[in-house]
Amino acid sequence: MAGSSFVYVTFIRTSPDELWSALTDPEFTKKYWFGVHQESDWKAGSSWKLIFPDGRIADAGEIVEIDPPRRLVLRWRNEFKPELKAEGYSRCVVEIEPAGDAVKLTITHTMDRDKSKFIDAVSGGWPRILSNLKSLLETGRIVLSA
Amino acid sequence: MMKDDAVFRALADGSRRQLLDRLHAKNGQTLGELCQGLDMTRQAVAKHLAILEEANLVSWKRQGREKLHFINPVPINEIAERWIGKFERPQLTALSDLKRKLEGKSGD
Q: How far apart are CA A11 and CA A100, in angstroms?
């Protein structure tokens, strides 16, 4: 297969609407995403930014597709590490599907180049973010703080 | 949905761990690719993959007619944090307490 990608899946005991708001609400995001939050008006074609707690821009891009509470597609580029920024834009697809008494959350992150350093970098972060998100939604507590 | 038992059962087999190693080395492989160079029949690999999928350790995507398999480390991370997170949290709390104290001093 050309390019680099990963597909991360977790099952969370919540509703699609709650999960959608957990994924897009800035204050809620900070609780499980190690203090960062997103800035966007969440419309197709709008800009999207990931902001560090100190206000620096971590990553930026735009909303490619948005269909609450089912599907979000982002064009996503790193902004704070030159060697990662040089790789250009990745594509991140967020999918939410009901699965019994839970919701299946799938994150597919792809870069159109082999051995992408960007994909390596974000692939380590997502499992921790997803574990925190699951724990926060199911128990009201996070596992690891920022 | 709490599938810890399924995760441990899936991991308690050398062939399945080998398949995860192969996906870790090269993510997004078809069944055919995964079979290459392995001392297992295609049926055996398919069966092991099904157990890994059931435990949510392998995810997959269709690309055209192909089914690509990916390692999904999220359940392993959940198991790790169940026991490791507890030991990191006091340190993190201690650090944030220290930060608050120092910042409170200079700020006031």
A: 10
